[in-house]
Write a structure and sequence with these properties.
It holds the Pfam family Sulfate_transp. This protein has about 425 residues and is mainly alpha-helical. It contains 18 helices and two strands. The protein is about 70% helix and about 0% strand.
């Protein structure tokens, strides 16, 4: 459970620091618009995304079990966070995140890091695609610039409301969103080492300001961003509130644990390394506790940002520390500039993020899987979209374990009639 940073600092030198410094700044430029967009899509204030990236990102790199893991708010949490805020308010989210941090700390100290292997892969794939669908549909309102007083949370109700509001389409807004998406794709292919996300969003947002287009920005919708971190406060915990929010806390802890360990495993394959799963869980627990104390969002290891860190030359957890400190510096110095970021540009960014989350390159492989695994993936996906993430994960894991037992030819239980 020893943090990786203690191992890597033994042989740390100026060359490694130069590589980590460049990679950390690059990842920060990717994380900045993503953190803002994820917070907005989650129903929270934009600044909450930056707070999470700074506090949680720093703690995940400082205490984590991976050399190159980058932590912060991720798209996987949007559905859960939106639901918790809608039902329990932002203070309820803070309490649920705080409890999730405690759950993850206990899981790490009990060495539960390897339990991820018991979660069937089709379940993970199913709820990931389901979350991606929900994220993409939630951004259509901002992408098209529709005039809607309220967007229903329920999936089919949301689609119906979007369809009824189709006549309010804002052409400049749609154009900014589509151009942003096109620029992100082009920059990702032409210059993969560049922070293409912030470049694309900055270009289209500058066009909005330069030509005074009738397009919403962060500042016009939410006001000015704060220039610094808020003071830490301990959430007010009482028995009734804890019991009420416990299911949400377990879902947040589950998602944080699964995504962080998946991200660490992906990173291991990219750098031929080996992460420490229990240290990673402890880091996730500390990060979510820290984020909650500053009023932030749930956090976990981010696969896309971790891969960006590796491609940019990050070698040790110092790159993650630099990433968090760079975002803090931007918040302190250039917060007013971030307010000019256009809402459809962020919407386009999140739609592409959702597309990448669904991993379309793997869809042909799913079609070649066993029928039972295809069924498990579809059931989890459908329940995630039309029902609830808690139900989807619970049903998916239960069905997956039953299928696994059946494959191992475990004999059925020898039921005996009760004697009454």
């Amino acid at each position: 459970m020893k943090p990786k940073i203690l191992t890597t600092l033994r042989t740390y030198d100026r060359q490694l620091f130069s590589a980590d410094l460049a990679a950390g700044i690059t990842v920060a430029m990717v994380a900045l618009p993503l953190s803002l967009a994820i917070a907005i899509a989650s129903g929270a204030e934009p600044a909450k995304g930056l707070v999470t990236a700074i506090v949680a990102g720093f703690l995940i790199s400082l205490l984590g079990g991976s050399r190159v893991q980058i932590g912060g708010p991720t798209g996987a949490f949007i559905v859960v966070v939106f639901g918790v805020i809608a039902e329990h308010g932002h203070d309820g989210l803070v309490i649920a995140t705080f409890m999730a941090g405690l759950i993850l700390l206990v899981a790490g100290f009990l060495r539960a890091g390897r339990l991820i292997q018991l979660v069937p892969e089709p379940v993970i794939n199913g709820f990931t695609i389901g979350i991606a669908i929900i994220i993409a549909t939630s951004q259509l309102n901002d992408l098209f610039g529709l005039s809607m007083s309220e967007v229903p949370a329920e999936f089919f109700g949301k689609l119906g409301a979007l369809w009824h509001a189709r006549d309010s389409l804002n052409v400049p807004t749609l154009a900014i969103g589509l151009v942003t998406m096109a620029l992100i794709v082009v920059l990702r292919r032409a210059a993969p080492r560049w922070p293409g996300l912030i470049v694309a969003v900055a270009i289209t947002s500058a066009l909005v300001a330069l030509f005074d287009l009738p397009v919403d920005t962060i500042q016009s919708r939410f006001g000015d961003l704060p220039r610094g971190l808020p003071a830490p406060t301990i959430p007010a915990l009482d028995t009734a509130r804890v019991v009420e929010l416990l299911p949400s806390a377990f879902i947040i802890a589950f998602l944080a644990g699964v995504e962080s360990l998946l991200s660490a495993m992906v990173a291991d394959r990219m750098i031929a390394g080996r992460h420490r799963s229990n240290a990673e869980l402890i880091a996730q627990g500390a990060a979510n506790l820290g984020s909650a104390l500053f009023g932030g969002l749930p956090a976990t290891g981010a696969i896309a940002r971790t891969a960006t860190n590796i491609r940019a030359g990050g070698k040790t957890p110092v790159a993650g520390l630099v990433h968090a400190l760079t975002i803090l510096l931007v918040m302190l110095v250039a917060a007013p500039l971030a307010g000019y970021l256009a809402m459809p540009a962020l919407a386009g960014l999140l739609i592409l993020t959702a597309w990448n989350m669904s991993e379309p390159h793997r869809w042909p492989d799913y079609l070649r899987d066993r029928r039972s695994e295809q069924f498990l993936l579809v059931v989890t996906l459908v329940l995630t979209v039309v029902a609830d993430l808690t139900i989807a994960i619970g049903v998916g894991v239960a069905m997956g374990l039953a299928i696994r037992l059946q494959r191992r030819a475990v004999p059925p239980s020898d039921w005996k009639p009760p004697q009454r």
